[in-house]
C-alpha cells in the first residue's frame, strides 16, 4: 500500500481546509428544522462554500455525485442525495457530510443534527456514535495499528447494543480525496497497518440501531439500513503526530470532544 506521509507544512494546509469544512457545518445548523428540504440545505451549503469561502465543493461531480453535500436522514447510512422531495420533519436525525478543497487540499467532516426533539433511541444512537468516533481518534498514535482504532470504536458501540457498518469506512486524504489507506471502524487490536507520523485520514463510524446489513437504493448512491432502523455517523479528519493525534476539522463551534 502506498501511504502518502504529509509534512508539517502540508498538515497545516489541510487544517485550513478542515476548518473551512467544519465552518460550513456550523453555518448550516440553524437551517436544519422541520419543513426544510435537504435540497435547500445543499443549496445553502453550496452557496457558502463557493461564494463566502471561495473554496470548491469536492462532492459535486465526484464519481457522478450530483450535489455538493451528502444529507443522510434517519435510516440512511451514508451518501444520501439532497432532494427537493425530502422534507425534514420533527424527530428526524440527519447527517450532513461536507468536503471542501482549499489550495488543492481536501477538508472532510460530518455531523449529526436533530430536527426538533429526537426520540430517546435516536439521541442515544447519535451520542454513542459520537463517543465511538472519539474513542477511535484517541487510539491514534505512532506505533498503534488501524486495528486498534477500529477495535476501540467497535467495542464501545457494541457494548451499547448497536452495530458497526462493515462495508463503508474512513480513508486516507490529502490532495487526493480518497487515498489508498482504508480505516475500518471495527477490528482486532494489533492488526492492520502500523500508524506513522504524517499519515492523514478520516475516522467516520457509521453505527446502526439494528443490524449492520444494508442495501443501496436504485439511485446508485443512497445506502440504507436493511431493517429500516436508524443509523448515525460522525466524521473528523486527523493527522498522526510524533506523539499522538491532531484533529484537523475543528472550528470555533465544533461539538466538544468526549
UniProtKB/TrEMBL annotation:
Limits of the Peptidase M24 domain: 12-242
Residue sites binding a divalent metal cation 2 per the record: 108, 171, 204, 235
UniProt-listed Pfam families: Peptidase_M24
Catalysed reaction equations from the record: Release of N-terminal amino acids, preferentially methionine, from peptides and arylamides
Segments forming a coiled coil: none
Co-factor requirement: Co(2+); Zn(2+); Mn(2+); Fe(2+)
GO cellular component: cytosol
PROSITE patterns to which the protein is assigned, alphabetical: MAP_1
Described function: Removes the N-terminal methionine from nascent proteins. The N-terminal methionine is often cleaved when the second residue in the primary sequence is small and uncharged (Met-Ala-, Cys, Gly, Pro, Ser, Thr, or Val). Requires deformylation of the N(alpha)-formylated initiator methionine before it can be hydrolyzed.
Protein name per UniProt: Methionine aminopeptidase
Gene this protein is translated from: map
Amino acid at each position: 500500500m502506498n501511504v502518502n506521509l504529509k509534512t508539517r507544512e502540508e498538515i497545516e494546509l489541510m487544517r485550513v481546509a478542515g476548518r473551512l469544512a467544519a465552518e460550513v457545518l456550523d453555518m448550516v445548523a440553524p437551517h436544519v428544522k422541520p419543513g426544510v428540504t435537504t435540497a435547500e440545505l445543499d443549496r445553502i451549503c453550496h452557496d457558502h462554500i463557493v461564494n463566502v469561502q471561495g473554496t470548491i465543493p469536492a462532492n459535486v461531480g465526484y464519481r457522478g455525485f450530483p450535489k455538493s453535500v451528502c444529507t443522510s436522514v434517519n435510516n440512511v447510512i451514508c451518501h444520501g442525495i439532497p432532494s427537493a422531495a425530502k422534507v425534514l420533519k420533527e424527530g428526524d436525525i440527519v447527517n450532513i457530510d461536507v468536503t471542501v478543497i482549499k489550495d488543492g487540499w481536501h477538508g472532510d467532516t460530518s455531523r449529526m443534527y436533530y430536527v426538533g426533539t429526537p426520540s430517546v433511541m435516536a439521541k442515544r444512537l447519535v451520542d454513542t456514535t459520537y463517543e465511538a468516533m472519539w474513542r477511535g481518534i484517541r487510539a491514534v498514535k505512532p506505533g498503534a495499528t488501524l486495528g486498534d482504532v477500529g477495535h476501540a470504536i467497535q467495542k464501545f458501540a457494541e457494548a451499547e447494543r448497536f452495530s458497526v457498518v462493515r462495508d463503508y469506512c474512513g480513508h486516507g486524504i490529502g490532495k487526493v480525496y480518497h487515498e489508498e489507506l482504508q480505516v475500518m471502524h471495527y477490528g482486532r487490536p494489533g492488526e492492520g497497518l502500523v500508524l506513522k507520523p504524517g499519515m492523514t485520514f478520516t475516522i467516520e463510524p457509521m453505527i446502526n440501531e439494528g443490524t449492520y446489513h444494508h442495501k443501496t437504493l436504485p439511485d446508485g448512491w443512497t445506502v440504507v439500513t436493511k431493517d429500516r432502523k436508524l443509523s448515525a455517523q460522525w466524521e473528523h479528519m486527523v493527522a498522526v503526530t510524533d506523539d499522538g493525534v491532531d484533529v484537523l476539522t475543528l472550528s470555533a463551534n465544533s461539538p466538544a470532544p468526549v
